[in-house]
Amino acid sequence: MQTAQDIITTYGRTGARLREVFFQERTPLLQKAALHMARCLIHDGKVLVLGEGAAGICARAAAQALLDRLDLDRPALPAILLPAGSPGGQTADRAALRQLEALARPGDALLTFLPDTAQTTMGPVLALAQETGMSCITLCGRPVAGLSLPGLVIDVPDASGAPASLVHELLFAAGHLVCRLVDYYLFENVTAIQAVDPQ
After folding, report:
1. Residues sharing a CB contact under 8 Å with residue 3, sequence separation 6 or more, in sequence order
2. Per-residue pLDDT tens digits for 37-57
């Protein structure tokens, strides 16, 4: 029988391994996501942020990070959190779709958090974002085989073998990092915005 210490040790090691592999393997994609968002903002666009289900907290934190100062003393950046539902009883995908119809413009960016792509209902939202001419960036657990997500997709390697809570925790950290990189490109290394995307 496992002890409480065994459970804690396994959880800690699994989380550390998941985090290490993610940040090792997804570095170029995280840089590219931040560059897309920085280019959008420098050309007077805005970032719309959406989180499905439990990832709503990731979306709220990312939108707040863009509006507030992180490590730099800088102005607020235009970020709008799309709703995960409405008092009128709309489903999350319908509420997000209506907001996107009203707010999205070509050149804007959509940052989406999808912890479980097998369960997502956000397909129409992502399709509309792409049709509108937005830069689509999706942070997610491992995409389902055969499911096509538009734009830049940053998934968690080995997400299927990890507890959902650890995947959620990693998506939260990744969203925060992307926002920190946006600050870096806009206020510390603006010449990178004109450079070629990292491969």
Report:
1. none
2. 999 999 999 999 999 888 899
Q: Are 76 and 63 in contact (CB under 8 A)?
A: no
**Tens-digit pLDDT profile for residues 73-122:** 889 999 999 987 555 556 777 888 889 999 999 999 999 998 887 778 88
Q: What is the pTM (predicted TM-score) of this model?
A: 0.90
Residue 138, strand partner residues: 112, 153
β-sheet bridge partners, residue 155 = 140
Burial bucket for residue 70 (CB in 10 Å: 0-12, 13-18, 19+): middle
The CA R_g of the chain, rounded to the nearest whole Å, is 17
The pair of structure tokens assigned to 57 is 């907290």
> CA separation (Å) from 96 to 25, 28, 84, 91?
31, 29, 7, 9
H or E, element range at 109: strand 109-114
Residue 149 half-sphere exposure, CB side, CA atoms within 13 Å?
Answer: 26
